[in-house]
């Protein structure tokens, strides 16, 4: 008997496989197709010949933990203890999984804001807890009346994602004030803040739980080197949480993966001194602006993109098909793979919107939009 009977193959895997079958341009799955930083390549080549191939400590390479603490202070003005409040994880997904498994008890509830990334629900179900799916407004901003109505004494976690995948929206000061009020009202409630796109933001600044002193003792943040440094295949991220909470997360982490790739940690430890994270947003803003400019020649309506490397577009003016059928036809007839937004909702809400990944080289974006012009 399956413990996850209704969960099948991820839509990201499905669309990437479909793209391969039809030799389509893949703008579906969120990974860059351009080379990583040459400096990082040189660091890896040098390290490969050094004695860095055995286990690191379970929590992470101490020097890298210290540099993450410094990065957090520089980025957000928050001091965290590298020895007790930071954990290196095998990607953000492992951090999310370990956190939920460690903190959520059988019978408790976890609020998920839809549309939501698909890795949140499984660890909740495996904890014998209940996911409570609350839809964002149609403009993808939080519906605080619905969130408050869904939160009760059984609610252990609320999962937030800012900047938001799949929509590219970012939370406002008002949203964080509402979240602080919610946490104050419910003493058992913790915040799991998925911030993997924290450095990929554009015109407006990213607000983090690290900025919110009232949330420090009640929040767990998730970050991703893979997203920030275009190395998604390395599967390396980190979690920041108060020591009392982190102790519980580490208990799960040590039996889930024990420790993370030593080569990746040593490489990032050297690389982080050479890179300016403030440049990441500017780099992707050029990608976003280029893609949006090219897309003006299509019949698709582009929604605002405030952060992440995803662009949502409405095809309502082109077709009344459901978004799953429309994306399949985009692959088979036009040779471009995208993601249907309805698959990020538990109830399949369909606004006739699709998601593109613009973390691609210029030729890929040019060729894709030329095909989309034929719609």
UniProtKB/TrEMBL annotation:
| All copies of domain Aminotransferase class I/classII large, residue ranges | 24-372
Q: Name one GO molecular function term.
A: transaminase activity
Q: Which Gene3D superfamilies match?
A: Aspartate Aminotransferase, domain 1, Type I PLP-dependent aspartate aminotransferase-like (Major domain)
Q: Which domain of life is it from?
A: Bacteria
Q: Which residues form a coiled coil?
A: none
What InterPro entries does the entry give? Answer: Aminotransferase_I/II_large (IPR004839), Kynurenine-oxoglutarate_AT (IPR051326), PyrdxlP-dep_Trfase (IPR015424), PyrdxlP-dep_Trfase_major (IPR015421), PyrdxlP-dep_Trfase_small (IPR015422)
Alphabetically sorted, this entry's keywords are: Aminotransferase, Pyridoxal phosphate, Transferase
SUPFAM superfamilies to which the protein is assigned, alphabetical: PLP-dependent transferases
Tell me the cofactors it needs.
Answer: pyridoxal 5'-phosphate
Q: Which residues cross the membrane?
A: none
Record's Pfam families? Aminotran_1_2
The molecule here is called Methionine aminotransferase
